Amino acid sequence: MSFEETLNNRASHLRLDVQFKKNKIKLINNTSNEIYNSTRVIFKKVKNNNFKEDLLQKKFKKLLLSHKVDSAKASTSISSSFIKKYRKLLN
Fold this sequence. Notes:
The chain is mostly helical. It has one domain (3-90). Helix content is 52%, strand content 0%.
């Protein structure tokens, strides 16, 4: 399911584990490598004081804004390593 399809689905409003279970949706945890890569990128951004978003991050944020997702207004971004890995879900 693409990010767009997910946001169009009522499941995008679920937040609690119990809600996902009730709706028979299995959550997939991030791997330790995914967590490491995301953390490494954040440390690099902090060290270089460079928080510019790349094209994929901007595209993802634009998608969230088009669906009026409150977190899209946050000053943070989705992990660049995560969005690169799952860029096919942006289409």
